[in-house]
Amino acid sequence: MRLIWQGVMNFRESDMYAPLKAHFEGLGYAVKGEVKGIDMVLMKDNALIVVEMKKSFNMSLLFQAVKRQSTAAAVFVAIPRKAFESERVQILQILEKLEFGLVTVAMDSPMRLVEVHLAPNMKASRNTKAAKALIAEFSGRIFDADNIGGSSGVKIMTAHKERSLQIACALKALGTASPAQLVRDYGCYEKTGQILRSNFYGWFEKIDKGKYALSKLGEAVLDDPAFAGIVAFYNKEVKL
Hints:
This protein has 240 residues and is an alpha/beta fold. The protein has two domains: 13-140, Trna Endonuclease, Chain: A, domain 1 (3-Layer(aba) Sandwich); 159-235, Arc Repressor Mutant, subunit A. The chain has helices spanning 17-26, 59-68, 81-86, 88-98, 129-140, 159-174, 179-186, 192-198, 216-221, 228-235; strands at residues 30-35, 38-44, 47-53, 74-80, 101-105, 114-118, 204-208, 211-214. Helix 6 (159-174) crosses helix 10 (228-235).
């Protein structure tokens, strides 16, 4: 069989993300994109499921999916409908053998219909170090609109960066504040003090004992168009 569908695909891999996200959210899953390098992560009833997307059915997709089995209760592979139709029987045989699920997106249709052809084999929740890190990252991200699964060459929003941007928004409104104030008055992450002290991005500066403010770099990052969505989100959340 041919493991690669040779067709005209005038779309990006990331274009499959929105219809897939809408489909799984409609089934009651919490969905986030680009989590620890995984295209899409789903969470429901404490079960973590990952989805790896590709424009074609190929060995690279299978390698990625196999790797994800050590971190999730189940794995879906997502491909365009046309890619599936070219080798339907063989693809289903391979994925069923590997215990993966299969979902397709009709990228050849303006409706972008999503269809599940094979349910993955659900296993007990993983308790590996990688699984715990994935869950922590998933749970730590509140704002997800800037992360589109399947994207490449773009800035990815991590939980740490999101928390740092939330703190930056609060400091812009407050001027100076202690970690306790940021947690109490603005609802910042409970370990805000650690983020301020480590100052990983250089966005903060210590003004006095236990008091912090935005650095010039921090002021500039709030005007970065790449973070416009999340900055607007957290500016609305200021509770002063």
